[in-house]
Design goal:
Layout: E1 12-13, E2 23-27, E3 34-40, H1 48-55, E4 63-69, H2 85-97, E5 107-110, E6 113-114, E7 131-136, E8 139-144, E9 152-161, E10 164-167, E11 177-180, E12 183-194, E13 199-205, E14 214-222, E15 228-234
Parallel strand pairs: 1-13, 3-4
Antiparallel strand pairs: 2-7, 3-5, 5-6, 7-8, 8-13, 9-12, 9-14, 10-11, 14-15
């Protein structure tokens, strides 16, 4: 469920051991970042090409790639260890709000729109108040500046990991080794707030395991349409 519309949200994500404190910060750029969401599953035979393509987006400052692993393919005998009910619920909710009758994998959303034309990507659109993230140790603080208009804003945290590989033993991809980047290990939406009020929120998150770098991102959305407006990501 979305968090209350209070201006402070603190969540503990207990993946991996605590490590030395980090201090870093990031701010959104002058141009909107294109948010690319891939809905995928290790149990889906047509998903590996999309997974490989998403990995090619690593290192791009103009794109935030998010791999949401859904759990409705698990019934075929291979439980995807990255799949979450939250990812499935998000995909179904966005489909419902867009007037689509169902969901499918691999599905790519680019800028909030169903985008079957990948690997070509559209230009980013949107724009909103500036965002900043600052990390001190295990705590990440988000600041959303006050908006110039009266619309409602919303958004979500996403904690991402890279460098994963799975040897699949059952289901449609039995015998294959699948590799994943941009894996969403935590998805946490915030309830809408009045854009003119700005927002401060916090997330407590431990560093990932060696070999699986973790990034913390925040995506700002229009509360009425769910379209991404801006995004910011920390590299530490």
């Amino acid at each position: 469920m979305p968090l209350p519309a209070a201006t402070l949200a603190s969540i503990l994500l207990a993946f991996g051991p605590a490590q030395a404190a980090d201090t870093c910060q990031a701010t959104s750029g002058d141009r909107p970042t294109l948010v690319v969401e891939l809905y995928t599953s290790e149990g889906c035979s047509s998903c590996p090409p999309a997974d490989r393509w998403l990995s090619t987006l690593k290192g791009r400052s103009d794109v935030l790639a998010l791999a949401f692993h859904v759990n409705y393919w698990d019934r075929l005998g291979w439980p995807d260890r990255f799949a979450t009910p939250e990812a499935t619920a998000r995909q179904k909710l966005l489909a419902q709000r867009a007037g689509r009758s169902g969901v499918y994998t691999p599905q790519v959303l680019a800028g909030g729109r169903d985008w079957p034309e990948w690997p070509r990507l559209p230009a980013a659109t949107g724009g909103g108040p500036p965002l900043s993230l600052q990390r001190e140790g295990d705590r990440v603080t988000l600041q959303v500046a006050r908006a110039a208009d009266a619309r409602l804003l919303a958004g979500y945290w996403a904690v991402l990991e890279d460098g994963h590989a799975s040897r699949v033993a059952a289901g449609e991809n039995a015998g294959a080794t699948l590799r994943h980047d941009h894996v969403v290990r935590l998805y946490r939406p915030l309830s809408p707030w009045a854009g003119r009020d700005g927002l401060k929120a916090e997330l407590d998150v431990l560093r990932g395991q060696p070999g699986h770098p973790r990034r913390v991102a925040f995506v700002l959305t229009d509360a009425a349409s769910d379209r991404p407006l801006q995004a910011v990501v920390l590299a530490c």
